[in-house]
């Protein structure tokens, strides 16, 4: 099942796609800021019933007019099958959109991050037909931001720093700086990135510290923005759960789930989705009521 911290690690690039270019410039790799960014569907499923889905897929339009696709994958641990999936994603996207594609892997675990950098070779021993070499962001290369002024200047990068370093000894200092920086920006943006931080910390000990910090201002958790983000995430989890269980989700059912903003209703639907034999079963008790 998709976890909250898994979602946060790639959704931060949807909230501010430019954080990708800024992070890699900090690592000495010159990438231009995008002039426009579009979110593409991450669904790479073919006609045959084999689902292949990225975490996030973005289309970057650059000033030179060429543009490229950014495929983002959040990776929690080493997976022997993942490299083959990444090779498929890159080949499929290049063929479908005829655009250069960059694979970005984000991980909170330094060992996993180093493994994910590859390169991964495909072919026979005498001849390599394909090499997959992802960009990787993790504790080994994401900047540690412990200066409030710097964090306030780039909240998305500071949030990414807090999430990727959540298992480090510096986690407490990074979170305190991020908390202070959020107080210096508009409340709507602060709510979004406070929520992403909470989700991204997952079950790490840093989560308790973040919640203690946020307890000083409960408005972060009671905000309309926060509730909207929770509802959106839960709705997407319901659709994802049904699809993983091989249950067809009609356009009407998908729209009903994704347009719902009532977290209590969505929680009930999620519980039913775990055992439902059809998408209609998810709404069965609602009809009885």
TrEMBL record:
It comes from the Bacteria. This is Transposase (putative) YhgA-like domain-containing protein.
């Amino acid at each position: 099942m998709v976890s909250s911290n898994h979602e946060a690690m790639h959704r931060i690039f949807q909230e501010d796609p430019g954080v990708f270019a800024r992070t890699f410039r900090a690592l000495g790799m010159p990438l231009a800021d995008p002039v426009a960014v579009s979110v593409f569907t991450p669904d790479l499923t073919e006609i045959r019933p084999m689902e292949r889905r990225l975490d996030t897929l973005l289309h970057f339009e650059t000033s030179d007019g060429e543009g490229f696709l950014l495929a983002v994958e959040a990776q929690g641990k080493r997976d022997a099958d993942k490299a083959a999936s990444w090779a498929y994603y890159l080949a499929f996207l290049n063929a479908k959109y005829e655009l250069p594609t960059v694979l970005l892997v984000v991980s909170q675990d330094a060992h996993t991050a180093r493994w994910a950098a590859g390169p991964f070779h495909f072919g026979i021993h005498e001849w390599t037909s394909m090499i997959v070499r992802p960009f990787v962001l993790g504790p080994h290369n994401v900047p540690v931001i412990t200066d409030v002024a710097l964090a306030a200047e780039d909240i998305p990068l500071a949030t990414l720093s807090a999430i990727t370093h959540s298992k480090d000894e510096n986690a407490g200092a990074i979170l305190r700086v991020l908390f202070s920086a959020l107080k210096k920006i508009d409340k709507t943006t602060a709510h979004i990135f406070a929520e992403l931080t909470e989700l991204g910390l997952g079950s790490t000990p840093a989560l308790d510290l973040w919640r203690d910090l946020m307890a000083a201002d409960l408005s972060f958790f009671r905000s309309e923005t926060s509730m909207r983000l929770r509802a959106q995430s839960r709705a997407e989890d319901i659709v994802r759960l049904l699809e993983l269980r091989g249950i067809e989700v009609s356009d009407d059912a998908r729209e009903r789930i994704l347009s719902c903003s009532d977290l209590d209703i969505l929680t009930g639907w999620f519980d039913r989705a775990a055992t439902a034999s059809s998408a209609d079963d998810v709404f069965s008790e609602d009809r009885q009521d």
